[in-house]
Amino acid sequence: MEVYFDNAATSYPKPEIVHRKIFDFMKNLGVSAGRGAYKKAFEADRLVFETRKSLAELFNIDDLTRIVFTHNVTEAINLALKGLLESGDHVITSSLEHNAIRRPLKELERERGIETTFIECDQQGNLPLAKVEAAIKENTKLIACLHASNVIGKLLPIRELGQLANEFNLHFLVDTAQTAGVYPIDVKEMNIDLLAFTGHKGLLGPTGTGGLYIEEGIDLAPLRTGGTGNNAVSEYPPADLPNRYEAGTINVAGIVGLGAGVDYILEKGVAEIREYELELIDYALTELAKIEDLTIYGSLNPEQRVGVISFNFEELINHHDLAHQLDSEYQLMVRAGLHCSPLAHRTVGSFEFEGSVRVGLSYFNTKEEIDYLIKALKEIKQAL
Ligand SMILES: Cc1ncc(COP(=O)(O)O)c(C=O)c1O
Fold it and tell me: How far apart are CA 52 and CA 72, in angstroms?
């Protein structure tokens, strides 16, 4: 049996409709969007529009022109942070962050003189809201954090953070890399004014897709400028969205595939996907916890998690060796290492082991596959 458990990196498989729509587009249409004035070009425009519409429905966004496409969530976060922050601004974030938020912030600290506060979460990944509130000061402009940790799957208190941001008139940027498509997200209810998403994980689209929702009233400096297919005479980027932030030919084939992934999710319903994943998370945590000497990082409460589980046999075997053995002897694909999140490993206690083995579950995994992983881990442990 071959099992893919690296869905926190990118989801696989994708629904059949995703391959089919990309293939159809490449074979039968294949033209650029936002440029031509012939029938096929209009059809490409329509397909891109449909993806924006589906994303707007998924995240409860009213104005779909305010969803701009990027190549991934990393680019979306870069656009939000570099487009918003100026010298002297202060940003509050968490100690669970992926490098996608941490590195642009550190770069801006060095190059633009912004200030940052990384609020320490406890070992279970709980973010102390009182400390977030206490960190707010005169020059605080933004709260920026991930929705769920890509190391321990821990869900951050996004609603409460959104309320705080609202109360103190701050912007609120959320990195939904591990939640979009698998956990309900509503930009209005959660007071999110900058929502960054990636297309290739829970949204079930292809790699090379992602985007940023920018609430009305926020003007970010574009990350890249160039041709947008409109207002070509002007020396400067257009003011209208999404063109302002989509210079260069967009990834039409990818966006078509992303639209198919999001439509699949809308049809199933995020609630149903979450319910099924919760069952898997609960089962995996329960069974993993029975394995002697296995340390599972973070909370064991499935309700507080998405389908990302990190563990180690700590001193007994290095995570790379364990992941290698799972792959070579059992065809089980997991991720090993720091997962681009050294801060999170420091927070949860796995940094001293240079990271962890990470299982990333998806809607397409089964309990039988988890049983197989458990069996493999028990056998490997026994032979140590
Ligand atoms: C929380 C988080 N943020 C950002 C990223 C980066 O995603 P991407 O490579 O699609 O930009 C990931 C995944 O790798 C992630 O898990």
Answer: 15
Residues belonging to the chain: 384
Looking at residue 149, the DSSP 8-state letter turns out to be: -
Q: Is the pLDDT of residue 229 over 90?
A: no
Ligand 1: centre distance to CA 78 (Å)? 12
CATH code at position 327: 3.90.1150.10
- Tell me, yes or no, whether 94 and 70 share the same domain: yes
What is the average pLDDT across 256-283?
98
Which CATH number goes with the domain that contains 161?
Answer: 3.40.640.10
Q: Are the C-beta atoms of 131 and 319 separated by less than 8 Å?
A: no
Q: State the catalytic residues.
A: 340
Helix segments in the chain, DSSP class H: 16-24, 39-59, 73-84, 99-112, 129-135, 158-167, 252-268, 270-289, 319-330, 342-348, 367-382
Task: Check whether the bond before 302 is cis (ω within 30° of 0).
Answer: no
Query: Quick one: what percent of the chain has pLDDT higher than 90?
Result: 93
Domain of residue 348: give its range.
3-12+270-382
Q: Using the atom order of ligand 1, give the atom closest to the CA of residue 73.
A: 11
